[in-house]
């Protein structure tokens, strides 16, 4: 006999048993009885047997149905217990309610700290701190998943283990704290170069707890109310010490044994072993697997200007002032070694002693700033200009330094949102860049120094950006006040420690144009004018100090000075738009009194 169960809609929450068919075996087929005479009855024995069979069948069906209804009552099979609580014969909702009640009754037991031992250290962990809980819904679902066989449901019984949840990362953190100095991190294998000599770091296994295994051990111990021992497990890197030695012998040493020839359509370049060592990398992943690769960016940097013989640099579009208006001059595309396959091709030939040649194609490189982009930056009108004067004519070293830095900055375009750095733009200003010795302030006195005079250009540039309303990022006024500069709103510069920076805080590009005469230098900013006016209002000078007299050893490095007063003063940048003040920025500086330097021996009193 086979029984098929079908659940009713959730409103009833009880299964219904349906009997599909019952077949009873008989010893012989039933033959038709002789037709009795009219008005007669069948023989008594035949009628008796039919009634008996019918009664027996009805009784059996009735008892089977009753047992089946009992066995299949509820979602959870009869005889199913969880934590000693009978859930059998209940709906899932009732079973969950009963299980939660049981957990409430055992709350003191289940919230008690667990004693955990790792290695030689023991500590208590609060279940709530690591998220230890019984997942009631998952447990009831497991309990409801009874054996489908009718016999099991009729006579079986079983204890279902609760489904326990734990926050594995929190548990891992708690266990790692308990591990402490007993554990150790995995030492990853590495191969690096000192010059062209390979240096190795051999791998070592980690000693730590295994998160997933530890979680199961702690869950089991929590339910059992027993102390837990979590083992420390060694985890070995995927690359062994023998693997490292093999990589050194088969790749690292041969790689730097000789140059590699790089051929292109425009000629060839020799990649020296030193550059190969800079570009060859051996990187370990989180499993400790060491993989070689070529860092093409590092390789290019190590080659320096060697690639200039086969590459053509792209040239940005630029802007110049012609006829009193900005004019765009188109740039040009360049050609650069296509490095997409270079790393792979180099790795293929580096182990070889001969045939160390790779080829590469040249790909076109567009300029970063195209004429179309430059024309769309809104650079159309003069927004500010500032001039400072100098003496000595253009032939003096100081004037030549001013001219050199002015020509370097001329034509620079600062994009919207970009920050301009004067040190970053010019780089180091030394003899190789065309700068000469001229007076600079060092340790509070004027001495000859390369690049003297560039502070005057810096002050001129600072004021041009200041009156354009651009954002001041970094500047530092001089220690002493010089009358050729506006007080407070001026700036010195010194490589590499003192810089001048401003940010283009507008939506338009800014063109820096420079010019000079025999006794002056001018910086002009071109863009789209967004302010009605930018002016300076000064507060009175205060805290006036007088200069002292200092006698210096006479000689070629001694530069006399007349001295100047020291003072503190405020300057306010006032920016107007639509006839209203929209910004008022305060700048304050304190000048030291510049001593009166005399190049002579101090007279005796």
From TrEMBL:
Residues 31-40 have a biased composition (Pro residues). Keywords: Membrane, Transmembrane, Transmembrane helix. This is Vanomycin resistance protein VanB. The chain crosses the membrane at residues 50-73. It holds the Pfam family PG_binding_4. Residues 251-358 form the YoaR-like putative peptidoglycan binding domain. Residues 23-43 are annotated as: Disordered. The keyword Kinase does not apply.
